[in-house]
Amino acid sequence: MGVAVGILYRIPRALLLYASVTGAIGWLVMHGILVNNGNVIFANFVGSMAVGAASELFARLLKKPATIFIVPGFIPLVPGREAYTTMLYMVDGRYPEGVSMGMLTMLTAGAIAFGLFVSATVYRLLLQNIDAKDKKDKRKIKEWMEE
């Protein structure tokens, strides 16, 4: 599915494999949690964190924007069936089931967005910490050489 979305959004051909791998990683993490009797919302949260981490890693390695890998990566996690079921329940007049499924859909979508946010934030904090340590080490080496 990541390749199809990548083609739709005109991602360069050389990056389609990486974009689809990002989607596969996210889906496999989510599916692995669901198979082990995990919560759907938690599974999507962890899956989107995996997508975010893989996207940031590929972006750094390939010197491209992370968005190129995020968009095809999170599409397999989108709760499309749940949104459809919500609308079906509402149209059929089954409002309690519709509201329940709508809440599940919204919480899942929120978990995906929050997972991407958390992974990007943690990644940037780690890079900032590594860069600060490198600058400190370089400063110490420079001071040592000047002695």
UniProtKB/TrEMBL annotation:
Subcellular location: Cell membrane
Parts of the chain that traverse the membrane: 15-34, 40-59, 66-84, 104-126
Broad class of where this protein is predominantly found: membrane
A single BP term in Gene Ontology: succinate transport
Entry membrane topology: Multi-pass membrane protein
GO cellular component entries: plasma membrane
Keyword Heme belongs to the record: no
Cross-referenced InterPro entries: ThrE_2, ThrE_Dicarb/AminoAcid_Exp
Domain Threonine/Serine exporter ThrE: 3-121
UniProt KW keywords: Cell inner membrane, Cell membrane, Membrane, Transmembrane, Transmembrane helix
Protein family membership: Belongs to the ThrE exporter (TC 2.A.79) family.
Full protein name: Threonine/Serine exporter ThrE domain-containing protein
Organism: Methylomusa anaerophila
